[in-house]
Amino acid sequence: MLAKWGISVSGEPARADEAKADLVLTLDAGARGVTRYPVVVKLTRLDGQYATAMALPAERPLLLLAPHVPDAAADALSARDVQFVDGAGNVRLGWDGMSLDVRGYRPRATEARRKDPTASRAFTRSGVMVVFALLSWPGMVARPVREIAFASGTAVGTVHAVMSALIDAGYVYESDAGLGLNRAGELLDRWAEAYAVRLARKLELGAFAITDPERLSDLERSLLGGGALVGGELAGSRIDANLRPATATFYVDEIPGELIARFRLRRDDAGGTIHFRRRFWKQQSPGADVVPSPLVYADLVSSGDPRQREHAERIRRVDDRLVELDRS
Questions:
Q1: Cβ neighbourhood burial of 124 (10 Å; 0-12, 13-18, 19+)
Q2: Domains of the chain, start order
Q3: Rounded-to-integer distance, Cα 218 and Cα 109, Å
Q4: pLDDT of residue 49
Q5: Which of 58, 191, 241, 317 is most buried by a 10 A CB count?
Q6: pLDDT of 233 over the 90 cut
Q7: What is the mean pLDDT of residues 25-29?
C-alpha cells in the first residue's frame, strides 16, 4: 500500500508499556526521514462517531490501520492527531521532512465489507444497557438472568442473548464458582465506543441555561434530593479533583418541570450548561449520588472534548472499579 509512495515498512510486537497498541511499525521514506509508530488495528466499521469515541493510546504519533476510513472519520482522527492508512488507499502521514494526505478512495464494490462478528449482540442499543450493568456492579455477571435484566432495564431474552455472545467471545468465563468477567478493560473500551454511538444521544432529554449561576448548588441539592444522579464531568470532578467542570449532567427519570420553573432554567439545547439525561437502569447503589464510574468514563470519552477525554484516562487510573476492570 505505502510502497507506491516510496515508503518501506517493518514491524515488531508492541512493548509492555505500549499495551494498548496492537503492534509497532517503522516507516522509512528514505531521505524524507524515518519514524516509529505504535499501531492500533481497527477491523470493524469506522465512522466519525466511532473515530471520536474509540479508546486510543495517548502516545503520539499514533497510526491507525483500518479497512476503510471515510472522510468524516478522517476529520475526527485528524482532530485527535491520529494518522491512518486504510485498505482502500486513503492515507494521512506526517513527520519531519514528509507529509502525505490522500483522501476520497472508497472500498471496492466487489469486496465484501468486513464485519466483526465478535459479541456483536452485546453492542446493540439494548446490549449496551446489559453490558453497562455487568461493568458497573461487582458480581453482577454471576447473578441470575432476571436480576441482570432488572438492573439494566432490559428484557430477559436480551440478557440471554448478550451473555451468550460475551461467553462465546471470551469476555465472560464459566467456572465451578460461577460466571466472571475476563478482559474487562477491553470490554470497557468496546462498550464505551458502542455507548457513544448506540445509546448516548437517545438518553438526551434537554439542555438548559440557568439565569442565576449562584443558585446552581441549590439546584443540585434539590435534584439529588429527588433521586437524580450526577454524571458527566461534574461526576468526573468527584473522582478527579483536577477536573473543573464546565457543565452539569444529571440522570433523571423525566425532566423535573417543577425545579426548572423554580430555578428559572431556560431551554438551550445548543449552549446550555445543565444537561438532563434519561436514567435507563434500575439497580440502586445505596448512598450514591453519582452514576457508576464506567458511565462517568463513557460520558467523558463520548463528549468529543479533548480536555474531558484526558480526564477520562485519569479517572480510569484512580477509580477503584475501573482499575479492577482493567486488571481482570
A1: middle
A2: 3-102 (no CATH), 120-198 (1.10.10), 200-327 (no CATH)
A3: 58
A4: 73
A5: 191
A6: yes
A7: 81
Question: pTM for the complete prediction?
Answer: 0.69
Residues 6+ positions from 167 with CB-CB distance below 8 Å? 173, 174, 179
pLDDT at 44: 65
All three cell numbers of 180, joined, read: 466472571
CA distances from residue 58 to 17, 34, 202, 241 in whole angstroms, order as listed = 11, 21, 29, 21
